Amino acid sequence: QVQLVESGGGVVQPGGSLRLSCAASGFTFSTYAMHWVRQAPGKGLEWVAVISYDGSLKYCADSVKGRFTISRDNSKNTLYLQMNSLRAEDTAVHYCARGDTVGAAHYYYMDVWGKGTTVTVSS
Amino acid sequence: QTVVTQEPSLSVSPGGTVTLTCGLSSGSVSTGYYPSWYQQTPGQAPRTLIYSTNTRSSGVPDRFSGSILGNKAALTITGAQADDESDYYCVLYMGSGIRVFGGGTKLTVL
Question: Residue B2: its pLDDT value, please?
Answer without folding.
Answer: 82
